[in-house]
């Protein structure tokens, strides 16, 4: 197919962390599956640098940071990885950075980052620091170079610094990957789509708000990746409404304050004071919950690692699937998930802080094993064994801390929320509350089990829409994907300085044609309305094949060569906006061939393989590493054997590659 029977060709569209992880697994598996075989040529197509890609590219503000500690970021498999291929351990970001200060061994290929600011950061970086995204960019660049160095001589990689605009070709013939800057396409035996996070054109509601802004000469920013946002249209002192209180808001907050010349001063008591430059706008922020995401923890477990999973692992999912009935996530699945999170929490509390418990751990866990999450007996057991309510896991106040609260004045609410944020940061940075980290690890352990329920078609369409893609994704991000504590201390300083004002929960955005302003209201402060000439949607673009900015996916969708995930039953239809792929191997579901396309695979963020992040915390058996390994092995076998096997119309068919 490639035109040369002595070689095979793989084209990977996208060269960011997901593609880099796949390349690392190809290198790891090549000694077994490609040794002594013909030449394999791999083409990477991405306008952004290979390794970091778009999101983690070096060319972005040094103010933007990760929300993970350096010791919690890795691109490598380890002893926890349940994979068929070889485990190839490698350094975490923190371990890799230690070589530049002499605190750790050198990791070949050794190359110091050219940027002096990045190199200085890496030399001082500790495991508990939250690195800049530019530091992560340097790490991902090195991982990519290491993967290249570990490939056998018969495997070569070429990077095309351009955009893939289309892929054509029959299921039983060569694939043509068309590029933006050349007339001749790349001819491939197999194509992997690994574009990563992709922007979307504005939805109808955003288009209406943008039209209002244009009509009145105002500012409106639809959902956008923070590093790409153009904020130059916001004037000093201008009031701005921001809808969204997650990580996108934190990035925007930083760029509109420190990014405009403001600074922070540390006071003798350790608190921060913000010193404005005078160029900042005034930021009014609110969201559904009305509070920022919970602060990331900044400590390690104080006790032994909890043995996970216990209640919501593969066996539990098998049991749910065996019931043969439609499942509701909140009713049927969440009790097992909640019990797992509770186990992680109490395992750490009992082992690390036994003085705050009133039962021996074996007695507690034996009783806990027998009891359902919902029920008076479980609550009574916890109350008896854990005397202090602050040590108990209670999801409702964690999830919706402003429910049932209202305040007579905006200033009263500012005081309340500052106190809430301060207490959250203090708790998340105090190892005396390390049970929160135990809960977090349990949260991670169960996250990768949920896609099996969707793939099996057992969750009702409404439950996928409202519970899995709605409530659960939001709850997970709120609890586990928050900002570093120092960012929330900065938020407190900005609030005290009057640069940031809190709006409340359940905010409603409107427009006022008379004044030409956007409006924001919240039941948290009844009767209070904020008018502002600017509105920012402070959250990332939602997945949408209908509105995707990616020209290749847009063209395939227009041609009917891929399909959006649609989950439907008698009562509801859910369109997720995600690219539908085979859950087993990532092959693209192609309506034009009546099944999965044998030569096109899609991985990562745009697909319905939920819960597969490009990099991971060490020793968590990361789903992405498992999928990368399985796909890499399948690619090498198919390309090496000269044929592709796939399930087409319920029968196996083979397509010759050469």
TrEMBL record:
Name of this chain's protein: Adenylate cyclase
**Domain of life where this protein originates:** Bacteria
* Source organism (scientific name): Streptomyces caeruleatus
UniProt cross-references to Pfam families, sorted A to Z: NAD_binding_9
Q: Which InterPro entries match?
A: FAD/NAD-bd_sf, HpyO/CreE_NAD-binding, L-asp_N-monooxygenase_NS-form
Q: In this protein, which residues make up the domain named FAD-dependent urate hydroxylase HpyO/Asp monooxygenase CreE-like FAD/NAD(P)-binding?
A: 11-197
């Amino acid at each position: 197919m490639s035109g040369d029977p002595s070689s095979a060709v793989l084209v990977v569209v996208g060269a960011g962390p997901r593609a880099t992880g796949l390349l690392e697994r190809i290198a790891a598996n090549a000694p077994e599956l490609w040794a002594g075989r013909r030449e394999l040529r791999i083409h990477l197509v991405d306008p952004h640098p290979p390794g970091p890609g778009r999101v983690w590219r070096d060319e972005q503000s040094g103010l933007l940071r990760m929300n993970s500690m350096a010791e919690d970021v890795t691109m490598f498999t380890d002893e926890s990885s349940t994979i068929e291929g070889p485990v190839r351990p490698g350094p975490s970001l923190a371990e890799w950075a230690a070589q530049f200060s002499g605190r750790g061994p050198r990791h070949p290929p050794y190359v110091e980052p050219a940027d002096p600011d990045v190199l200085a950061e890496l030399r001082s970086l500790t495991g508990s620091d939250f690195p800049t995204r530019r530091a992560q960019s340097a790490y991902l660049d090195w991982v990519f170079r290491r993967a290249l160095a570990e490939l056998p001589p018969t495997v070569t990689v070429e990077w095309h610094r351009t955009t893939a605009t289309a892929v054509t070709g029959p299921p039983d013939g060569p694939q043509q990957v068309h590029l933006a800057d050349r007339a001749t396409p790349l001819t491939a035996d197999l194509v992997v789509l690994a574009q990563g996070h992709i922007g979307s054109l504005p939805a109808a509601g955003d288009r209406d708000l943008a039209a209002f802004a244009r009509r009145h000469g105002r500012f409106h920013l639809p959902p956008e990746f923070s590093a790409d946002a153009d904020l130059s249209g916001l004037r000093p002192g201008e009031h701005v409404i921001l809808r969204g209180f997650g990580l996108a808001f934190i990035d925007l907050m930083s760029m509109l304050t420190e990014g405009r010349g403001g600074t922070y001063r540390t006071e003798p008591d350790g608190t921060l004071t913000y010193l404005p430059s005078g160029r900042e706008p005034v930021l009014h922020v609110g969201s559904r919950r009305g509070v920022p995401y919970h602060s990331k923890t900044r400590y390690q477990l104080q006790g032994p690692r909890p043995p996970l999973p216990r209640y919501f692992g593969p066996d539990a999912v098998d049991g749910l699937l065996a019931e043969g009935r439609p499942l509701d996530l909140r009713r049927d699945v969440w009790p097992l998930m909640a019990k797992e999170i509770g186990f992680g929490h109490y395992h750490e509390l009992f082992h690390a802080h036994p003085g705050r418990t009133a039962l021996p751990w074996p007695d507690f866990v034996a009783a806990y094993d027998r009891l359902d999450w919902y029920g008076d007996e479980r609550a009574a057991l916890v109350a008896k064994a854990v005397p202090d309510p602050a040590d108990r896991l209670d999801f409702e106040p964690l999830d919706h801390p402003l429910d049932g609260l209202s305040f007579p004045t905006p200033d009263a609410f500012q005081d309340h929320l500052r106190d809430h944020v301060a207490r959250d940061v203090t708790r998340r940075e105090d190892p005396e509350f390390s049970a929160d980290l135990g809960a977090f690890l349990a949260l991670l352990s169960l996250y990768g089990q949920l896609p099996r329920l969707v793939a099996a078609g057992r969750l009702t369409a409404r439950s996928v829409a409202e519970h899995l893609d709605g409530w659960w994704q939001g709850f997970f991000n709120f609890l586990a994907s928050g900002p570093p504590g120092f960012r929330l201390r900065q938020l407190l300083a900005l609030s005290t300085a009057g640069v940031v004002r809190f709006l409340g929960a359940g905010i409603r955005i409107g427009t006022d044609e008379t004044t030409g302003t956007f409006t924001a209201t919240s039941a948290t402060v009844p009767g209070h309305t904020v008018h502002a000439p600017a509105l920012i949607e402070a959250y990332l673009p939602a997945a949408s094949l209908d509105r995707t900015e990616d020209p290749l996916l847009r063209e395939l969708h227009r041609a009917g060569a891929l399909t959006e995930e649609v989950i439907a039953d008698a009562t509801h239809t859910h369109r997720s906006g995600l690219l539908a792929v085979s859950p087993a191997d990532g092959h693209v579901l192609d309506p034009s061939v009546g099944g999965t396309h044998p030569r096109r695979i899609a991985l990562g963020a745009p697909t319905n393989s939920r819960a597969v992040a490009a990099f991971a915390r060490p020793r968590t058996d990361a789903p992405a590493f498992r999928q990368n390994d399985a796909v890499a092995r399948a690619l090498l076998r198919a390309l090496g054997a000269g044929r592709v096997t796939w399930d087409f119309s319920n029968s196996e068919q083979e397509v010759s590659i050469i």
